[in-house]
Design goal:
This protein is α+β, with helices and mostly antiparallel strands and 256 residues long. The protein has nine helices and five strands. Strands 2-3-4-1-5 form a five-stranded antiparallel β-sheet, with helices on one face. The longest helix is centred in the last third of the chain and has 19 residues.
Length: 256
């Protein structure tokens, strides 16, 4: 947002970069689903964007954006390609050879709005988290729903259409929105950045998948958090520490 500097006190922090390419006619292991490839040194995302196109996002956990070069091509073909599902590799090779890609920074921006009458920041313009979990659109819709709900509350409706009263009402709604939005968005924000950290740590990465493979509530509840069906912070903490415990078990070998 071009207005963020005037309407927020947040400082942008680049957490990594995504290199994006379009894969044509790419068969996915699970059609019409998004995929997270737990690659080294960090994850790749695959998801369909049309009936014939699939977008791949390759994470680069570094301070500078990757640039087109023979070294980048070598990295994509010799480090990333062998870690992709077999049915994806042909389309990926063609995309690398075509050389059309875009690079975008992944930002971490906490919500620190500055109130100014007549303006309101929503979604990514107000705060951002790592896009690994795809939570940005969910946060934007959540913000819109909350703002609309505050407006339709009976005690917020102005008794007259007189300009001054209407403006005061709108200002009060925006202030309440800024004050309460974190209750619905916090779990999405925390999980996105925490899961990115997990995916970059080999021990925690293995622990996470061992945990999910148990099935039942060990998979259903974390997936409900990932999809933002559940916003329960206590549930998030419980599963986070359970995964950490699994990681400790994998590292510490108890002598017999």
């Amino acid at each position: 947002s071009a207005f963020r500097d005037k309407l927020a006190q947040s400082e942008k922090k680049v957490s990594s970069f995504f290199l994006g390419m379009i894969l044509n006619n790419c068969p996915l292991p699970y059609p019409n689903h998004g995929h997270v490839v737990v690659a080294k040194p960090s994850p790749c995302l695959l998801y369909p964007i049309s009936s014939s196109e699939t977008r791949i996002l390759i994470d680069f956990p570094q301070a500078e954006a990757p640039r087109k070069s023979p070294e980048l091509t070598d990295y994509l073909m010799n480090t990333i390609l062998p870690q992709l599902p077999l049915q994806v590799r042909h389309s990926f090779t063609e995309a690398v050879e075509e050389g059309k890609f875009k690079v975008m920074p992944n930002h971490y921006i906490p919500a620190k709005p500055v109130f100014k009458a007549g303006t309101v920041l929503l979604g990514d313009s107000l705060n951002m988290r790592h896009p690994l979990t795809g939570g940005g659109m969910t946060v934007a819709f959540t913000d819109i729903k909350l703002l609309g709900s505050l407006w339709t509350k009976t005690d917020h409706r102005p008794q007259t259409t007189e300009h001054g009263q209407l403006q005061n009402t709108i200002d009060d709604i925006v202030k309440e929105f800024y004050k309460t939005r974190h209750k619905q968005d916090a779990t999405i924000n925390i999980l996105a950045d925490a899961l990115y950290g997990v995916m970059r740590n080999e021990d925690l990465k293995i622990a996470c998948y061992d945990y999910l493979k148990r099935g039942g509530v060990y998979a259903e509840e974390p997936v409900s958090l990932l999809s933002a069906v559940s916003r329960d912070q206590n549930l998030l903490l419980r599963h986070f520490f359970a995964v950490a415990f699994y990681g400790v078990k994998n590292v510490i070998k108890v002598p017999t």
